[in-house]
Write a structure and sequence with these properties.
This protein is of the alpha/beta class. The protein has helices at 19-29, 60-68, 87-94, 106-112, 129-139, 144-162, 176-192, 196-203; strands spanning 9-12, 34-36, 40-41, 56-57, 72-78, 81-86, 99-103, 120-125, 169-172. It has a domain at 9-37 and 98-203: 3-Layer(aba) Sandwich (Rossmann fold), CATH 3.40.50.300. Belongs to the guanylate kinase family.
């Protein structure tokens, strides 16, 4: 059972959509209001990544055992690596009274919808698949086959993100400033200015 607290905020979108950039701006502007839920992964750390800050790095065996014990809210496998959000990671943020922010994929969204977290769901859209491919190539972190898989996954994620009822808001990230302004307005309306009952009533329109 996840400890009760402020309603979590979920950011979802294809790799390269810019959701991480929006998240960083949000946490920088409102450090006392929002806290990031650090996910677990079985992939190795990339250059500059720190354990417990960017991810909780673990082994496949350890993560599968934790999932079997019911310690995770959501988990998924991508390119042979497991990713997931532990109940403890969310509880640690919510205990502080902050809004817990989750950066998860569409499989994670489907799973979190089936919990009692009642999250606010935001989908971040890239301007186009071509622009998404340009951004991913600019990272220069993956070989061609892995990049093609990411693009194929992105197409499926965009289809899911655009289906009515899957998210509270879809933000087109063609420019960061405009996208962040939309995210900030949505959060202000739903997190700061409305009581829990009003927001919960609105959530009934989001399919589970």
């Amino acid at each position: 059972m996840v400890q009760k607290g402020p309603r979590p905020l979920v950011l979802c979108g294809p790799s390269g959509s810019g959701k991480s950039t929006l998240l960083k701006r949000l946490l920088k502007e409102f450090p006392d209001k929002f806290g990031f839920s650090v996910s677990h992964t079985t992939r190795g750390p990339r250059s500059g990544e720190k354990d417990g800050v960017h991810y909780h790095f673990t082994t496949k065996e350890e993560m599968m055992a934790s999932i079997a014990r019911g310690e995770f809210l959501e988990s998924a496998t991508f390119s042979g690596n497991m990713y997931g959000t532990s109940k403890r990671a969310v509880e640690e943020v919510r205990r502080t009274g902050k809004v817990c922010v989750l950066d998860i994929d569409i499989e994670g969204v489907k799973q979190v919808k089936n919990t009692d977290l009642n999250p606010l769901l935001v989908f971040v859209m890239p301007p186009s698949i071509d622009e998404l491919e340009r951004r991913l190539r600019a990272r220069n972190t993956e070989h061609e086959e892995a990049l093609r898989k990411r693009l194929d996954t992105a197409i499926r994620e965009i289809e899911f993100g655009q289906q009515p009822g899957n998210f509270h808001i879809i933000i087109l990230n063609d420019t960061v400033d405009k996208a962040y302004a939309e995210l900030r307005e949505f959060i202000t309306q739903n997190v700061e200015d409305k009581d829990q009952d009003t927001v919960a009533d609105e959530n009934n329109s989001i399919e589970k």
